[in-house]
Prior knowledge:
This protein is an alpha/beta fold. It has a single domain (3-277), classed as TIM Barrel. 40% of the residues lie in helices and 15% in strands. The protein is built from nine helices and ten strands. It has helices at 13-22, 45-57, 78-97, 115-129, 155-164, 176-181, 189-202, 236-244, 263-277; strands spanning 3-6, 27-31, 63-66, 102-105, 138-142, 170-175, 208-213, 215-216, 227-228, 254-256. The chain is globular, with a radius of gyration of 18 Å. The model has no long low-confidence stretch (mean pLDDT 96).
Amino acid sequence: MRLGIHTRINQGFVKAAERMARLQCNACQMFSRSPRGGKARALSQEEVNQFRDLCMKNDINPVAIHIPYVLNLATSDPEMHQYAVDMVKEDMSRANLLGASYLVLHMGSHKGDGTEKGLAQVAKALNEAIKNYHGEAMLLLENTSGAGSEVGSTFEQLKYVLDELKIPRAGICFDTCHGFAAGYDLTDKAKVDETLRKLDEVVSLANLKLIHANDSMFPLGSTKDRHAVIGQGYIGEKGFKAIFRHPLLKNVPFILEIPVDSDEDWERNLKAVRRLAGS
Length: 279
Ligand SMILES: [Zn+2]
């Protein structure tokens, strides 16, 4: 299986790649900048080369870049819209520089404009950002938990935006915690089968490029985006065993975004996941 973690980059990208190698991850995700916004630090050619070398040598593939939390693609406010477009553009070029395969996007909230308008705004913003884009990194739309006025919590909504994008290189990233919070049951093999059947029917499994494997601190349909350690939330070990061993997900990389910090804790959690996956 391809398995990695969302890692911090506070010590730079080279240290982050070294950490992935140490933890024996063969996939990884990171922000390309502070997730709270602000001006992004310039990347030196040396840092970029070293990062790409380390990923190649240690078979860390794919690398996914996650967009900062501060931007809202669904907004109708012209200033915030432009801010989101510019940041996606910048992150796409940083993702390409770093040799990342994917740029993962949260769609944001419509803030009272309604879901339909919000989704149309997301498509508009992304189409502006990808105009004249020729990079390798693929845009991935991540499903949301549907909290407040968040858009993108159903497969139908993801499909709508995907169809509107004027770019062939786009797909989806399925977050198990968000999906569960939005009402997609994943607690055993039959439920996972059913959720994947729906996903395939609406979005097509061919568009599923990445999974954020996170347990959920709240029950099914809560719309609460609170990640739990694998096996310690409402999806539980049985659910994750079914997910990690599912034949339809055999070639989909998993990224853990669970509340774990130290390398020791990550090691323990990665081991637990590999055990559940039977690998
Ligand atoms: Zn996620």
